[in-house]
């Protein structure tokens, strides 16, 4: 957890009674010693909220729990790491994902490639953005250097015959991605009711 210019190591914090004043998480402390936060995510939104609220109270100036960290220099030394020394990793193991064409310009540009300008957007696009299966192996940590993709292109579209060459792409359509982890499963074939979407 980033806190100012430091990061709180939740594994160390949990192992040294950092959560001693939060009974709700006591049976689940092992989730913070896992290599990812999947097990913590699976605990659900009510647990996420109380843990977040508790950590905020621990770091508040007038914390009701000064013994946990504020007056505990040993735990501060062990559990707080300067952000400049922290290496970011993917916080979750991502087994799969669904991508949605939520950006109109990007959806149009891709649609032109497949169907031409007249039919670039499918008739339902403005009512229900198209979702498709994505490739989770391409998800990386923010700041990772991205390589321009290679593929077959026709360098001279007016040539006859048109002969493709293997090359870096000459144009690159950029879109901003916004991700959300789905922490709770639903049964196969059973949609999630809109009233439960936030959970």
Automatic annotation (TrEMBL):
It comes from the Eukaryota. Keywords: Calcium, Hydrolase, Magnesium, Metal-binding, Phenylalanine catabolism, Tyrosine catabolism. Residues 1-91 form the Fumarylacetoacetase N-terminal domain. Its cofactor is Mg(2+); Ca(2+). Its EC number is 3.7.1.2. The keyword Magnesium applies. InterPro entries: Fumarylacetoacetase, Fumarylacetoacetase_C_sf, Fumarylacetoacetase_N, Fumarylacetoacetase_N_sf. The keyword Hydrolase applies. It catalyses: 4-fumarylacetoacetate + H2O = acetoacetate + fumarate + H(+). Pathway: Amino-acid degradation; L-phenylalanine degradation; acetoacetate and fumarate from L-phenylalanine: step 6/6. PANTHER family: FUMARYLACETOACETASE. Belongs to the FAH family. This is Fumarylacetoacetase. It comes from Cryomyces antarcticus.
């Amino acid at each position: 957890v980033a806190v100012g210019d430091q990061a709180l190591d939740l594994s160390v914090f949990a192992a040294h009674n950092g959560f001693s004043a939060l009974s709700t998480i006591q049976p689940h402390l092992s989730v913070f010693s896992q290599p990812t936060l999947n097990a913590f995510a699976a605990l659900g939104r009510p647990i996420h909220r109380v843990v977040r609220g508790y950590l905020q109270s621990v770091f508040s100036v007038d914390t009701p729990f000064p013994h946990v960290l504020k007056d505990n220099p040993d735990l501060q030394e062990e559990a707080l790491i300067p952000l400049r020394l922290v290496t970011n990793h993917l916080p979750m193991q991502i087994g799969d994902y669904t991508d949605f064409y939520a950006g109109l310009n990007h959806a149009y540009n891709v649609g032109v490639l497949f169907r031409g300008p007249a039919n670039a957007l499918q008739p339902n696009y403005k009512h229900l953005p198209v979702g498709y299966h994505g490739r989770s192996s391409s998800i990386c940590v923010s700041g990772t250097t991205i390589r321009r993709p290679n593929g077959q292109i026709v360098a001279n579209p007016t040539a006859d015959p048109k002969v493709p060459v293997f090359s870096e792409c000459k144009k690159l359509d950029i879109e901003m991605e916004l991700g959300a982890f789905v922490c709770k499963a639903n049964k196969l074939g059973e949609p999630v009711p809109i009233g439960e979407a936030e959970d």
